Amino acid sequence: MDKAFWDQAWQIKRLNAYQPMTHPLLMSFWPRVQAQPQTWVFVPFCGSSQDMRWLAAQGFRVLGVDVSELAQQDFVAKDPHNTVNYLYEDGFKIAYQQQISFYCGDFFHLHTKHLQGINSVYDAAALAALPEARRQRYSVHLAHLLKPGTRMLMLAHEFTQKRITPPFSVEGSEMQRLFGCNFHIECLYQGSTGKTGHREMVYLLTRKGCQI
């Protein structure tokens, strides 16, 4: 992954995924995942998203990963009253803060051993952040990491005009092409954001038996 790109993106604060408040679509549709409290939720390309704190407040344990150390620093700084402990493991700098484990490092360097306890996934920024040429690698690696039955809530965007910065447009047909072999896919929501030519989509994906 291009660490320099993500650090620069952080410096100019241009990624919509790093919003200061909990995403309303997460709050509306997370119950459809049917995750049990105290189980683990994986958040790829997490940035300093407050969505992780919302999930933790609902009683879940959260494992986020992001390649940008600036994102990790920003996330920890937003909650200065809670102790943070650091550990270096397998090339990741891990920040532990209450029920959240923030892995700073490359998503593609994660192995199944890191996600053994994961029961559900929340992707609000990962797929939308990747240009089209890199999405197949993401979908395959994600399928490799997750055990059958794991359920994932994914937020996506559709734009009528081509974009040169994230979030990028992901059409429904591409969702089928990327994930159809390894996941059952259900579209839960599609709606306008109020901006011309922009729709938000919410998908529920369930990992099938081993295929990849």
Automatic annotation (TrEMBL):
Keyword Acyltransferase (UniProt): no
Protein family (similarity comment): Belongs to the class I-like SAM-binding methyltransferase superfamily. TPMT family.
PANTHER family cross-referenced by the UniProt entry: THIOPURINE S-METHYLTRANSFERASE
Compartments (UniProt record): Cytoplasm
Protein name per the record: thiopurine S-methyltransferase
UniProt lineage: Bacteria, Pseudomonadati, Pseudomonadota, Gammaproteobacteria, Oceanospirillales
Example GO molecular function: thiopurine S-methyltransferase activity
Pfam annotation, one family: TPMT
